[in-house]
Amino acid sequence: MTALTLSTSAAAALRADAVVVGVTKGPKGPQVAPGAETVDKAFDGKLATTLDALGASGAEGEVTKVPAPSGVKAAIVVAVGLGEAPQDGAGFDAEALRKAAGVAARALGGAKKAAFALPAAEAADVEAVATGALLGAYAFTAYQAEKDGRSTLGEVAVVGAKPRDKAHKAAAERAAAVAAEVNRARDLINTPPNDLTPKSFAAAVQAAGKEHGFKVEVMDEKALLKGGYGGIMGVGQGSATPPRLVRIGYTHAKATRTLAFVGKGITYDSGGISLKPAGHNETMKCDMSGAAAVFAAIVAAAKLGLEVNLTGWLALAENMPSGGAVRPGDVLRMYSGTTVEVLNTDAEGRLVLADALARASEESPDAIVDVATLTGAMVLALGEGRFGIMSNDDAFRGKVHAAALAQGEDSWPMPLPKELRKTFDSPTADIANMGVRLGGGLIAGLFLKEFVGEGITWAHLDIAGPAFHEGAPFGYTPKGGTGSAVRTLFSLAQQTADGDLLP
Ligand code: BES
Ligand code: MN
Ligand code: ZN
């Protein structure tokens, strides 16, 4: 894991393998951003000219590496584009700083220690630079032999930050905790499904509970059968590795509010008897990203001791076809008592979430937020870069959207149109697990709504798009598991602790 330090020394004087500086896009070419003054001085004030001559413009995502002149302790200067400089007086956009730091972290190669001399005057800047650097430095190498020259960044030093300033220190602590947990979620998502099973996932949560001081209860298949969890059991019954429902309980003695987070944890989604065709199942180890986000966000909150009660519900199962698997046409009796006709076994997420939502509702939390890689329809609607937000409360949906935006987690509010509800009526059971094809993401949301307790504020994040990134890395987003929604959930917990989210 990459360590984070705050440094008061001048960027040029700091002992490191590389020093990262910011470049903005000026009207007449690249300009050196604040934070890099001492480095520029070592270039005799000609760093911008040098970068210009090398073809740099200061555009977002651009990286230019320059050998360091004498007067700079580091061996190389990594200049990263920040885009256009903010208008007079305004600070740098947090997401621009996160992205630039992430891009630089990925461009550092084998560096052991890097100094980040990006604009970091305010605590929010320190948090953004640190978060971007720590997320950008992520690599998943657990299943690969050591390759030459590949080592993970050992230390990120944020230059310009003040280690004795309370706000700067808190910002750095938050960045370190949250980034480490986003990276934990990424590790879980990237772990192949032959190793990450409902059982091993639950064991990982138990271990974290011991380490960070929160309660973990695991319901195994016997407990689930006895408890009447027909949705989770039905989805898991075709797999050789039986399902689990995990309850995480983080409490703070001074907390007055309780948030419940519910995560879809399908450790592999083959589609079941309604099997997915080749081309649609290669990345389905990512179908537990919601549960990973819930788990990771609560660990971050526990590490930082947030003044809030958080309950996490991880609905863990593997969706497989076998002689024992649930069939299209079967009727399941859910935890809530509702009967559901399974028309398509590939619409399994809503079945496991239904039980977890009903169970979570029994404890009457102040609000419930569920996170799930739920529908391909949401990816078609919004693209792979953003998640959809649905809610039974428009004001709450707006607050969740604002929280996500502030974290740089792209998302968009989606409706729950009443008239679609009847499209999943069933001739046999109370409801079916599938409605019409068009608007499939909204239908899934409406299905979940059926299982949320009366009067409880609820939001549903469909992260099927952003959970797993198959293209080239960009900003602080790596290939593979992204850790989508961890920072949004954490922010909701933080805002609740601060008394800003719920009335
Ligand atoms: N896990 C999938 C959704 C998904 C798709 C996640 C793409 C990540 C990327 C989900 O279980 C699923 O299969 N949904 C079906 C529902 C349909 C059968 C009603 C879908 O979206 O096709
Ligand atoms: Mn599915
Ligand atoms: Zn699924």
Structure description:
Helices cover 33% and strands 21% of the residues. By secondary structure, it is of the alpha/beta class. It has an eight-stranded mixed β-sheet, sandwiched between helices. The longest helix is centred in the middle third of the chain and has 25 residues, at 166-190. It starts with a strand and ends in a 6-residue tail after the last helix. The model has no long low-confidence stretch (mean pLDDT 97). The structure holds ligand BES, manganese (II) ion (MN) and zinc ion. Manganese (II) ion binds next to loops.
Named CATH topology of the largest domain: Aminopeptidase
Outline the biggest β-sheet. 8 strands, mixed
Spans with pLDDT under 50 lasting ≥5 residues? none
- Report the span from N to C terminus: 38 Å
Share of residues in helices:
25-40%
What's the CATH architecture of the largest domain?
3-Layer(aba) Sandwich
The CATH homologous superfamily of the largest domain:
Zn peptidases
Q: Which cofactors or ions or other ligands sit in this model?
A: ligand BES, manganese (II) ion, zinc ion
Q: What is the residue-mean pLDDT, rounded to a whole number?
A: 97
Number of strands: 20
- Rg from alpha-carbon coordinates: 24 Å
Class inferred from helices and paired strands: alpha/beta
- Shape by Cα distribution: elongated
Number of separate structural domains? 2
Enumerate the strands of the largest sheet in spatial order, edge to edge or round the barrel.
Answer: 8-9-11-10-14-18-15-16
Care to give the gist of this entry?
With 503 residues, this protein is an alpha/beta fold. The protein is 33% helix and 21% strand. The strands form four sheets. An eight-stranded mixed beta sheet has the order 8-9-11-10-14-18-15-16, sandwiched between helices. Strands 1, 2, 3, 4, 5, 6 and 7 form a seven-stranded mixed beta sheet that branches. A three-stranded mixed beta sheet has the order 12-13-17.
